[in-house]
């Protein structure tokens, strides 16, 4: 009885060793044939696309432009204190004679009436004290806001570069795991076919046959999980860079 078991154990052990070796070879060849980095744009191109697409960076650009406009607006705020008055009139007016204007003593004091047009133009300036003293402060504050918006954008750019690189490598890792999972499924499918034959011929019992089928089912579950992770990683990277990949 014991002599019969030994050959079966040796056969099972040899099968597992050959299976592991064939699986490793199959995975290595599959990874070489399916290099996702050859299908994705280069990382620097992905970063450039992400910068152009980023709403956050656009917000900081708009914020800087707003405060630059505030600097100019505050610098010209003193013009608000200058007033220009003009008036126009047409009709009959009483006027002084030339002698009266010259101050001739014997000149008649009677005004003479003429029909004419009259224009009036005047400029005045009225500036509150707080506008004088606060103007420089407001200019400095607005300039500081411009600088802050620029520094915030620089910080956001660095964060975005790191985030794109992270998502890029997540896609590569998820794709490789998917390739590995696919290779395992294909290997266990072949093993399952052999298990069917061996079980029919009585070479393995139902327990071993069930175990092999469970391994195939588990590999299928792992493949679906890795496939979901890969699709999620691709979708995340596409959303960041604002384009669809043709993979």
Keywords:
247 residues, mainly alpha, two-stranded antiparallel ribbon, disordered N terminus
Cα Rg: 44 Å
Residue-averaged pLDDT, rounded?
Answer: 76
The percent range for helix content is over 70%
Overall spatial form: rod-shaped
For the largest beta sheet, what order do the strands appear in spatially? Answer: 1-2
Alpha carbon gap, first and last residue: 57 Å
Order of helices and strands: HHHEHEHH
Polypeptide structure, described:
The structure is a single chain. With 247 residues, this protein is mostly helical. Helices cover 72% and strands 11% of the residues. It has 6 helices and 2 strands, in the order αααβαβαα. It has helices at 2-33, 43-53, 55-75, 98-102, 129-201, 206-241; strands at 82-95, 112-125. Strands 1-2 form a two-stranded antiparallel ribbon. Helix 2 crosses helix 5 (129-201). It is rod-shaped and about 120 Å long. It starts with a helix and ends in a 6-residue tail after the last helix. 13% of the residues are buried. The model is unreliable at 1-13 (pLDDT under 50).
């Amino acid at each position: 009885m014991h002599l019969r078991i030994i050959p079966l154990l040796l056969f099972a052990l040899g099968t597992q060793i050959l299976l592991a070796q064939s699986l490793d070879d199959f995975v290595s060849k599959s990874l070489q044939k399916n290099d996702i980095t050859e299908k994705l744009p280069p990382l620097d191109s992905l970063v450039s696309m992400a910068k152009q697409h980023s709403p956050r960076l656009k917000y900081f650009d708009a914020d800087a432009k707003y405060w630059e406009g505030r600097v100019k607006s505050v610098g010209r705020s003193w013009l608000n204190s200058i007033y220009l008055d003009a008036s126009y009139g047409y009709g009959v007016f009483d006027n002084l004679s030339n002698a009266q204007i010259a101050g001739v003593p014997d000149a008649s004091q009677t005004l003479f009436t003429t029909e004419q047009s009259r224009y009036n133009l005047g400029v005045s300036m009225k500036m509150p004290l707080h506008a004088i003293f606060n103007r420089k402060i407001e200019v400095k504050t607005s300039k500081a806001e411009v600088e802050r918006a620029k520094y915030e954008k620089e910080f956001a750019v660095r964060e975005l570069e790191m985030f794109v690189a992270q998502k890029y490598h997540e896609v590569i890792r998820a794709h490789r795991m998917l390739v590995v999972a696919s290779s395992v499924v294909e290997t266990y499918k072949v093993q399952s076919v052999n298990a069917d034959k061996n079980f029919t011929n009585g070479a393995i019992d139902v327990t071993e046959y069930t175990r092999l089928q469970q391994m195939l089912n588990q590999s299928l579950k792992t493949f679906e999980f890795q496939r979901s992770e890969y699709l999620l990683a691709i979708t995340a990277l596409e959303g960041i860079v604002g384009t669809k990949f043709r993979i």
